[in-house]
Amino acid sequence: MSLLQPPLPDRLKSMSDEDVHALIAASKAKLGDRCVILGHHYQRDEVIRHADHTGDSLKLARIARELERTPYIVFCGVHFMAETADILTSPAQEVSLPDLQAGCDMADMAETWDVEAAWDEAMAALATTERNARKANRIVPVTYINSKASLKAFVGNHGGTICTSGNAHAVIEWALARGEHLFFFPDQHLGRNICKAMGFDPEMDMILWDPKKPLGGHTPEKIRAARIWLWQGHCPVHALFTLHQIKKIRTESPETRIIVHPECAMEVVDASDMSGSTEQIIRAIESSPEESRWAVGTEKHLVERLAASHPDKVITSLNPYTCLCGTMNRISARHLAWVLDDLVQGRPMRNRITVDEKTATASRVALDRMFTLN
Fold it and tell me: What's the pLDDT at 4?
């Protein structure tokens, strides 16, 4: 989702970097515990340096839920993350996204009206016989947290839940124990990689649902035969990591361990030494011995930060070129300074993100189910 972001005021544009950081520090001091800044691992260093808490989607969602006495939450991430924070906090709390154009391409690949149409088609395909009519209520929808609030509400209303890359295994296990079919949105790669690791066959047990085609591009028979239905969505950043890059590293530096995010394609995950969420990647590298070598398949800011934090190890990107999340990168220290300065001056919170109560209530049901599985 991309919303209209007002241009930065001239005074902030003309400030030196040092003055911008000084303004943020002064604003934080004046606001005290009335304001908390959350920073996702993929944010720029100039933003992360001011974050009160850093983490991946799951960690930051948990933190937001616990900030019961904090009236202002500034979420340096992307739109769906700020929506989730608003859902998990009280009406008395306000959530800001410093740049409204910080969206998520993957989340935009699963529009709720397309999901609703696909759901109706899938239900009809299952209900073609009397036996399958009973099974039509046994589809369990799961959406990755990288999705819009309306999609989170959809899965909440249909007995499903939400997962992150860190807890996807437990969530999918729960869903498959409850129903004959799992409908997983919007990242096909995360769903495929986790289900394959659980023992499911990508060819026999899974289908890829193309929302642009009738019945997702499949026959009713094929839909009924597949246990897992994967939405045709992906992360453009993690699509930049390839099997060719892995083979090159294996040849040139066989001692280097390769760790990638499960949003990467299956062939990349299969050829790597490890895969895991951003928090899992961090823990794996932190616990590794000195002088160990790593090639990491995830967004550049996290990789660069890991390399700087662990000079005793050799940490590089699996992709030698820039693997940047362009939407996450939209937020700058100047945007953060603008939001904080407005609060100090007593103005209404800039770029407030709000989710309507009906959507928030259904989304909260799905999120609460997720939290109980951790």
Answer: 79
Q: Which residues pair with 94 in a beta bridge?
A: 72
What are residue 352's DSSP bridge partners?
96
Q: Walk across the sheet containing 314-317 and list its strands.
A: 274-275, 257-260, 293-297, 314-317
Instruction: Say yes or no: 95 and 112 in one domain.
Output: no
CB 72, CB 48: distance < 8 Å: no
CA–CA gap between residue 36 and residue 259 (Å, rounded): 32
What does the alpha-carbon distance between residue 66 and residue 56 come to, in Å, rounded to a whole number?
16
Sign of the Cα pseudo-torsion (189, 39, 161, 103, in order): negative
- The reply to whether 369 falls in a domain is no
Positive or negative torsion for Cα 321, 105, 63, 374: negative
Whether 171 and 207 map to the same domain: the answer is: yes
CATH number of the domain residue 41 falls in: 3.40.50.10800
Report which secondary-structure segment, H or E, holds 76: strand 72-76
Which whole-number Å values give the CA distances from 32 to 28, 35, 295, 338, 340, in the listed order? 6, 6, 39, 17, 11
**Segment 8-26 mean pLDDT:** 95
Domain assignment of residue 322, yes or no = no
DSSP code at position 152? H
- pLDDT confidence of residue 324: 86
Q: Is residue 2 part of a domain?
A: no
Query: Using CB atoms within 10 A of its CB, is residue 342 exposed (0-12), middle (13-18) or buried (19+)?
Result: middle
**Mean pLDDT, rounded, for 71-82:** 96
Q: Residue 153 falls within a domain, yes or no?
A: yes
Looking at the fold, whether 291 and 271 belong to one and the same domain comes out as yes
Res 136: pLDDT: 52
Count of domains in the chain? Answer: 3
Residues 231 and 272 in one domain: no
Instruction: Identify the domain containing residue 305 by its residue range.
Output: 238-317
Give the pLDDT of residue 5: 85
Mean pLDDT of all residues belonging to the chain: 94
Are 135 and 175 contained in the same domain? yes
**pLDDT for residue 129 is more than 80:** no
